[in-house]
């Protein structure tokens, strides 16, 4: 008999034998077989729960890939959750919603909904060892559409997210030149005359480079303008990188994560150290973290904080579940949930420090330029006798004019020339006004930040580092997104992962050509606004409800105790059952209201005006917006109805390979184990009162009756794969 068998293990153990054949023969009732995951097809039997299973090594038993180390797994989860949003969305929300005061609602909501739901996804993925489709088929088959919706949202997000990586690749290669190509406006020639490009002169060099040189954007979404060949090649390069990273599953992506997850932190720390030595950096950070407590009480702040918590951790995408499914069953996923959530939060704060240190430097430069330009206006007004020299304080030196000197002159002139002040055309030039210009998304990464870097010493080096960081941040998120797509498909169908991965990347590239037209940026905005927000929120609340209310919170907590070896904190019971569902319902309601009151549209770049202008979507584009939402959510009612009316086979009977392997192992040793226990001396026999007696619910069948009703060992084993009855809700 193998040394690892249960019989041999128990020969050398003084512990009581519980939940085994000994309990059955002693007429004891160690577990609730009626609601057990491997219940027989009896009335009232629940769905295959995530109950206690034989202690095996799943990664060795079922051939499922496993992480090489705990560090590799943590880096994968961190790489998936820490993405571009931490760099260009979180700082914007801080600035918009009260500075440092915004951190309070964010942290509260991270505790109330972020960590509990992240823990929930990690636990079900680790226990059931399937992708998103298999997990929710297993927990409650009628809500199996949750996994399909997650997969579809992953597909939509992956299509446009990789376009952003393509943009970063383009800027990365453009950074290997000095001066940077977006540092100055291009000079045009008309015969012997030269002039500055009008579109650039009206906006700025970085804005012009983004809209005209990079995107070559059209003025409306209706005008496609054809493919942008440079962006098409960049997108192709992005998909090749992603494909190579995930082609071998976690064997390849896990190794990539060592670099792609850690390198962004090196860059952020380098930028932070360099930024702190820049003039105005302290002003930017002080402005950022000056709390505006009156704003913190506004409902909009809490809604946006909840949305950011929700998307920052990657909830509902399926990537969290997929990564967790490759863990060992006894891995401490509670520790992982807390650790990754805290790392994500601290990364957002670090990125905010970096962004506002650099933006403070940029604001200082622009404010100095404003002072110089307006000082020249004042000198012109003095020379033309529009202003009297008596208005200028005697200590002011125009050759070394400071911001405080200009502010003093400005106030004096404004008071004296109150009636005609507007005609003078003077600007106030306040540093705070520059810092209050909130930017996010591509506007922050490809315009504001790039403009600031043009003023850095050795600017090409910092530009290369910055865009290489963006590529790695995007790559980490794309690996998680692709894993969320491929894992459930590989679990459901027998197909080589290499073929599936290459096929997905090829299809995604051709679908992604929509986003590399000259009007492609407008479609990126459309998909970002409509393809993920509402569908993912509904997916996560259904995940929460299916576990907490349909499967039963008490049963789930018991399963966690069996799996982890300790009972999770009692507070999780209330968070999963009451707090998180209520918060998610409020978030869904607020999102629907926001969509209803906000006119659907996009910011179009108007070439003649050299500025953005809001435009409403045409009818066909509006139809496309709602089609994205409906398509992502359609699997939820379809699968529910199909399983309710038995049009679709019940997916819950498709046990994971690890369950079937462990079942085979247990049944093969059942007779030997029985003989061993019966052959023990009376003094060695297990105690009639075992140290652990699991709960046996009312109306359950005695374990002895289960054995006597089973005609053979093989029949006993095959009964595990019968279709369970619908679950009873358990409080």
From TrEMBL:
Keywords: Glycoprotein, Membrane, Metal-binding, Sodium, Symport, Transmembrane, Transmembrane helix, Transport. It comes from the Eukaryota. It is found in: Membrane. It is a multi-pass membrane protein. The chain crosses the membrane at residues 73-91, 103-124, 145-173, 231-250, 262-285, 305-326, 338-359, 461-487, 499-518, 530-551, 572-597, 617-642. One of its GO terms (molecular function) is metal ion binding. Na(+) binds at residues 79, 82, 86, 344, 473, 477. Pfam families: SNF (PF00209). Residues 1-20, 42-61, 707-731 are annotated as: Disordered. SUPFAM superfamilies: SNF-like. Residues 707-723 have a biased composition (Polar residues). GO terms for biological process: alanine transport; glycine transport; L-leucine transport; proline transport; sodium ion transmembrane transport. Residues 8-18 have a biased composition (Basic and acidic residues). One of its GO terms (cellular component) is synaptic vesicle. PANTHER family: SODIUM-DEPENDENT NEUTRAL AMINO ACID TRANSPORTER SLC6A17 (PTHR11616:SF102), SODIUM/CHLORIDE DEPENDENT TRANSPORTER (PTHR11616). Belongs to the sodium:neurotransmitter symporter (SNF) (TC 2.A.22) family. This is Transporter. It comes from Astyanax mexicanus.
